[in-house]
Write a structure and sequence with these properties.
Distance between the termini: 14 Å
Order of helices and strands: HHHH
Largest sheet: none
Helix content: over 70%
């Protein structure tokens, strides 16, 4: 169940970060509310994930997956297109996350 909470935390965090652009310095109420609620939700889910998974694995996975998801969402929502080198970097991040999660580190706390 820890992985489900981790993925929900990543989704909440990424949504929050993408909405941050639309806040216009926190003067636009709806995106501002999404940012605040998204961060709160992300930390609630991450706290639940850390009950079953090591802190380092949760943090590394959360950060890496959030980077990739924010980039994908920004590409779709804001039409922010990135070059092939950036996408290659995203693949490297994904490989790094997979290596961390496939390691022999026990997934307990």
């Amino acid at each position: 169940m820890g992985w489900v909470f981790l993925l929900l935390g990543v989704l909440a965090e990424a949504t929050s970060h993408v909405a941050l652009k639309a806040t216009n310095g926190f003067t636009n109420p709806l995106p501002s509310a999404i940012v605040i609620l998204g961060h709160l939700t992300a930390f609630l889910f991450l706290g639940q994930a850390m009950k079953n998974l090591p802190v380092g694995v949760v943090h590394a996975s959360w950060a890496g997956l959030a980077i990739v998801l924010v980039t994908l969402m920004s590409n779709i929502i804001y039409k922010q297109h990135l070059d092939a080198k950036v996408w290659l970097g995203m693949v490297v991040i994904g490989i790094g996350i997979a290596i961390i999660n496939l390691s022999s580190v026990p997934h307990t706390h």
